[in-house]
Amino acid sequence: MRRSALAPAALATFAALALGVAAPARAASETYQTFCAVCHGDDGKAQTEKGKEKGARDFTSKKWQKSVDDDRLQASIEKGKGKMPAFKGKVADDDIKALVKEVRSFAQ
Length: 108
Prior knowledge:
By secondary structure, this protein is mostly helical. The protein has one domain: Cytochrome c-like domain (Cytochrome Bc1 Complex, Chain D, domain 2, Orthogonal Bundle), CATH 1.10.760. The protein is 53% helix and 0% strand. α6 crosses α7. It is globular, with a radius of gyration of 19 Å. The termini are far apart.
């Protein structure tokens, strides 16, 4: 009898799920890592030294996420807001739109 090559991988995945092993953290885009993570953190909670210093937004806050629409997020990224610098001209327009989606992903 021949065993499937996928069986060991499937068994390992099932075992990890059954044992409650956490899934890998969401992968941040290169753009987010380059321009946003220094203040907002890899996890979006803004608990970095720079984030605390500048009062950066916690992207995981459901209350905050509900209080802003995508147009406002895009405008904040493009034009800056408070201590956050403007990124229009530094980041491609398509990447700014992708960042809006990425910021939204922290609420999930």
